[in-house]
């Protein structure tokens, strides 16, 4: 089975990566769009690891052979089905070792041409870290500021519709920047996967004159932006969007109302957890009695009232501080109409 580096694989067309690690390893992080065909399940991997540590590597390998042998026909069939659709089928495990080698060799015996990723996932991870460490961003960033609820993420996609390149950082991180947080979303993207998807998006867009992003702090959910990107945001074109309080409340309510309607009790439980996490900040603004009243109306499912209080008493004062540090913006737009805002931005950015 031929070795191939990730860098060389990038130059190939019609490629697919098959991650033969356990489902647990795959769930934690993998190469974006890779397919998981595990040689061992989570329990089997753990069992082999214990034998390796407590007894000997040789016994661990023999246990691996015993566990793998009955699965081989089905694993090979799965890989063969995928191999028909791609020119380059690249297997990888943690370090490019026995797991990818064992299944790859058997697959080639039955006539498939496969490749093994040199160094496995570990080498891929180092590749991404090295590229982000020395990334040369040749595009300027358009940084969109605005209070919570003005629709910055929706505005990005309005700009995307009129062919302005965008990077949805919160989308990559699978995180929403509000007290409702990740309600209705899957698990937030961990750092390894965030680095990977950010690098891939940058590679798609780097060299474009302008790339639009939301104003973000260093941390988005549980992921952290690389320093070069934060520097590029600082040096970007900064614009401010303002909308009425009514429009902002309605926009946030509309974003979450489906999740509430599907599972009201679960939604309220998670909302109360989120309020508890920022309790001390809300108490500073509205006092203990005000916080108790906020919890009361949250339990009653009065979402619009909760949103309005959080915006005026928590988010707006917090974001005002970060917005004030910019002094003045290159452009300020006040409107509740995102399509109009997008057109105004496109017209303004023709000067850049």
Please report which band the strand proportion falls in: under 5%, 5-15%, 15-25%, 25-35%, 35-45% or over 45%: 5-15%
Which CATH class of the largest domain is shown? Alpha Beta
Global morphology: globular
Number of helices: 16
Widest beta sheet: strand line-up: 1-5-4-2-3
The count of DSSP E runs of length 2 or more, i.e. the number of strands, is 11
Architecture of the largest domain, according to CATH? Answer: 3-Layer(aba) Sandwich
- Biggest sheet architecture: 5 strands, parallel
In whole angstroms, the N-to-C terminal distance is 51 Å
Mean pLDDT: 91
Structural class of the secondary structure composition?
A: alpha/beta
Question: Any idea how many domains?
Answer: 2
Q: Radius of gyration in whole Å, from Cα?
A: 25 Å
User: Remind me, CATH topology of the largest domain?
Assistant: Rossmann fold
Report the helical percentage.
55-70%
Order of helices and strands: EHEHEHHHEHEHEHHHEEEHEHHHHEH
Question: Tags for this entry?
Answer:
Oxidized Rhodanese, domain 1, 16 helices, about 350 residues, alpha/beta, 5-stranded parallel beta sheet, 4-stranded parallel beta sheet, Rossmann fold
Characterise the protein shown here.
With 352 residues, the chain is an alpha/beta fold. It folds into two domains: 2-131, Oxidized Rhodanese, domain 1, CATH 3.40.250.10; 136-349, 3-Layer(aba) Sandwich (Rossmann fold). The protein is 56% helix and 12% strand. It has helices at 6-9, 23-28, 42-54, 57-68, 72-83, 98-109, 120-133, 152-161, 169-173, 191-205, 227-234, 245-262, 264-277, 279-299, 303-324, 338-349, and strands spanning 2-4, 15-19, 35-36, 88-92, 115-117, 140-146, 210-214, 219-220, 223-224, 237-242, 331-334. Strands 1-5-4-2-3 form a five-stranded parallel beta sheet. Strand 8 and strand 9 (223-224) form a beta hairpin. The longest helix has 22 residues, at 303-324. The N and C termini lie far apart (51 Å). The mean pLDDT is 91. Pfam families: AAA_SelU (PF26341), Rhodanese (PF00581). GO terms for molecular function: tRNA 2-selenouridine synthase activity. It comes from Selenihalanaerobacter shriftii.
């Amino acid at each position: 089975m031929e070795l191939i580096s990730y860098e060389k694989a990038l130059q190939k067309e019609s490629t697919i990566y098959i991650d033969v690690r356990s489902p647990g390893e795959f769930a934690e992080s993998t190469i974006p769009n890779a397919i998981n065909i595990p040689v061992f399940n989570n329990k089997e991997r753990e069992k082999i690891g214990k034998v390796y540590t407590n007894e000997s590597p040789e016994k661990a390998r023999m246990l691996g052979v015993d566990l793998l042998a009955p699965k081989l026909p089905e694993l090979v069939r799965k890989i063969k089905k995928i191999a028909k659709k791609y020119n380059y089928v690249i297997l990888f495990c943690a370090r490019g070792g026995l797991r990818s080698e064992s299944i790859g060799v058997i697959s080639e015996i039955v006539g498939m041409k496969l490749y093994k990723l040199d160094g496995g996932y570990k080498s891929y991870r180092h590749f991404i870290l090295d590229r982000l460490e020395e990334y040369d961003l040749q595009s300027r960033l358009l940084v969109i500021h605005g209070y919570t609820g003005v629709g910055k993420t929706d505005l990005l996609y309005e700009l995307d519709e009129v062919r302005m390149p965008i990077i949805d950082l919160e989308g990559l991180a699978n995180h929403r920047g509000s007290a409702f947080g990740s309600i209705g979303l899957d698990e937030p993207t961990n750092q390894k996967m965030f680095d990977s998807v950010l690098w891939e998006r940058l590679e798609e867009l780097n060299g474009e004159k302008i790339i639009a992003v939301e104003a973000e702090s260093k941390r988005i959910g549980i992921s952290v932006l690389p320093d070069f990107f934060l520097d590029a945001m600082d040096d970007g074109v900064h614009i401010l969007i303002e909308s009425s309080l009514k429009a902002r409340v309605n926009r946030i309510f509309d974003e979450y109302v489906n999740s509430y309607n599907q599972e009201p009790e679960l939604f309220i439980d998670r909302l109360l957890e989120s309020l508890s996490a920022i309790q001390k900040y809300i108490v500073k603004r509205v006092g203990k009695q005000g916080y108790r009243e906020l919890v009361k109306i949250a339990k009653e499912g009065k979402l619009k009232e909760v949103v309005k209080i959080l915006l005026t008493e928590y988010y707006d004062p917090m974001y005002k501080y970060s917005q004030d540090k910019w002094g003045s913006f290159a452009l300020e737009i006040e409107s509740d109409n995102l399509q109009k805002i997008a057109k105004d931005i496109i017209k303004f950015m023709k000067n850049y």
